[in-house]
Write a structure and sequence with these properties.
This protein is of the alpha+beta class. The chain is built from 1 helix and 3 strands; from the N terminus they run βββα. The protein has one helix spanning 48-72, and strands spanning 4-6, 22-28, 34-39. A 3-stranded antiparallel β-sheet has the order 1-2-3, with helices on one face. The N and C termini lie far apart (47 Å). 13% of the residues are buried.
């Protein structure tokens, strides 16, 4: 089982030139890090609408990653001022 959760909104995003290359934005559900993958090649040509969808997916992943990272950080050992 993968620790990464992919953004399903990108399932139909494909390279406009070859139709085969895919992009994936995923959040590591254990650490909160965000992975951006371009599958099957090193570059992808996106339509403006698909590029905007990828940008939205990255923003969603960043928000989810922050939440995960915050919840996995140890409690502060500092004492509040008296």
């Amino acid at each position: 089982m993968s620790a990464f959760g992919s953004d399903p909104a990108l399932d139909d995003v494909r390279d406009v030139e070859d139709g085969q290359t895919e992009v994936d934005v995923a959040t590591n559900l254990l650490t909160g890090t965000v992975r951006l993958s371009i599958l099957w090649t090193q570059e992808i040509m996106l339509s403006p609408d698909d590029a905007e969808e990828v940008a939205r997916a990255l923003q969603r992943a960043a928000a989810q990653g922050r939440t995960i990272a915050t919840s996995t950080q140890p409690e502060s050992t500092q004492h509040p001022p008296e």
